[in-house]
Amino acid sequence: MKHRKIIRCFGVLEIVLLLTLLSGALSELNADTVESIPLHRSPVSCGVPSGTPWEQNYILREVPNALGTILLFTGGDGRLNLNVIEGPNGDTSSSQFGINKSANFLVRSRHLFASFGFNVAVVDAAPDFLNCQNGLGGWRLSPQHLQDIKDVIGNLRGKFPSKPVWVMGTSMGSISAAQAATIPKDIPGVPLGFYHLDGLVLTSSVTASDNSGAETVLMVNLEAIRIPTLIVSHGQDTCLATPPNDAWKIRSRLSSAPVRDIRILWGGFAPLSNECDALSYHGFFGIEPVAAAQISFWIKNHLTP
Asked: What is the CATH number that goes with domain 2-301?
């Protein structure tokens, strides 16, 4: 009986923490805006629903006197559906924007990174990818997705000139982040370094694939990355796609990165989701403030002078 009581009490603490994290983000909704920028490519074969603006959307949380901007990529199918807001009767309207309530580690922790002095941008999938059956699944390594990322980087460079831009992805989002980090500094026809990022953080990176040929971060040309890189894993992550020991595989491939560090974190609450979803060790459930602090301090120590 005593054992059952302990388990039940611990479950209540988990729920309280989750509600606290979500309320931390939701209580500052006025700090979040949804930015919409034109896309500079043709739609992929999934197409765009009639009446949907051909725009890239992202959440922006701006802070005064920011040290720089962190560009975040969610995991899974990459969908945030920022162009849909639920009405009072459950109806939806694509003509208004709603702030996403995703439980994803980076999305739900965006206010934590902002608290350390960074502007935070969270990228949604483009409208044609939103219309694909698996969202960004199978498209994270595509030139179309990379062009969308460049559009967001360019928009952030315009908003915050001279401020560094870092990129961070979690789980499947680590593929998008790593691919973005391969953008070279010298691109003909654009100012030097305009799309080039200043640093990379990979969390719970997808490194293992089944026979379906699903994308992994190891399919990225990691040898082309020439910016400081931090690899963060949870030592108790049991998701088959993100084995924590593969952090060293990633590190060994980052042969051109000036810094390539690894952080293995431990602890947290017992999972409330399956092992590959957000509310588990895979999603740093219960240690979000610790993870955000370690990542933020590491970024601060490697900011471009």
From this structure: 3.40.50.1820
